[in-house]
């Protein structure tokens, strides 16, 4: 079963659709599946676990500079902000090691986007370590990992669900 979130992105390097979800039939683990579009139908590979614990929030984007998928997420324990870099191969995907982008507990409302002018991933979220203000942080993908700058407040208030886009 699937619940809580279903998010997707298009991997233009492989020509595949990447869908992430919380798998209620598998202890609410964070899972991902690769889809192949053919004509007016889509077929899927075998779902892969990107975190072996219950995940409450997650979003996904594609970094066209590195050819990698980036997932920003918060597991239930420890409930900090993490990012993980995925590489699509055929109908499957493999991951590097998770990287903490915010060590505060209860990071929430995660939204990811790729800025192709600067070749950076931007993760926006609610930061409990800073009065639950709404912040963004810039990530740089290198190989199968990602490194981050310092988070910046864009709204000195706690917002509801976030959604990001790049113009």
Structure in words:
With about 170 residues, the protein is an all-beta fold. It is built from no helices and 14 strands. It has strands at about 1-10, 15-25, 30-40, 40-45, 50-65, 70-75, 80-90, 90-95, 100, 110-115, 120-125, 135-140, 145-150, 150-155. The strands form two sheets. Strands 1, 2, 3, 4, 5, 6, 7, 8 and 9 form a nine-stranded antiparallel sheet that branches. The N and C termini lie far apart (about 35 Å). The model has no long low-confidence stretch (mean pLDDT about 95).
- Return the structural class: mainly beta
| Count of separate DSSP helical elements | 0
Cα gyration radius (Å): 15 Å
Low confidence ranges: none
Taken in chain order, the helices and strands follow as EEEEEEEEEEEEEE
Helix content: under 10%
What is the general shape?
globular
Mean pLDDT: 95
Query: Strand-residue fraction?
Result: over 45%
């Amino acid at each position: 079963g699937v619940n809580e979130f279903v998010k997707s992105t298009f991997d233009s390097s492989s020509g595949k659709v990447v869908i992430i979800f919380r798998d209620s039939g598998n202890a609410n683990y964070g899972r991902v599946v690769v889809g192949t579009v053919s004509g007016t139908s889509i077929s899927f590979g075998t779902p892969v676990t990107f975190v072996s614990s219950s995940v409450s929030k997650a979003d996904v984007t594609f970094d066209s500079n590195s050819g990698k998928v980036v997932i920003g997420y918060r597991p239930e324990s420890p409930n900090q902000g993490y990012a993980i870099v995925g590489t699509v191969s055929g109908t499957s995907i493999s991951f590097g090691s998770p990287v903490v982008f915010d060590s505060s507990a209860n990071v929430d409302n995660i939204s990811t986007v790729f800025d192709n002018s600067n070749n950076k991933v931007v993760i926006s979220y609610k930061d409990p370590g800073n009065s639950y203000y709404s912040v963004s942080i810039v990530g740089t993908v290198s190989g199968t990992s990602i490194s981050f700058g310092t988070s910046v407040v864009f709204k000195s208030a706690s917002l509801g669900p976030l959604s990001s886009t790049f113009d």
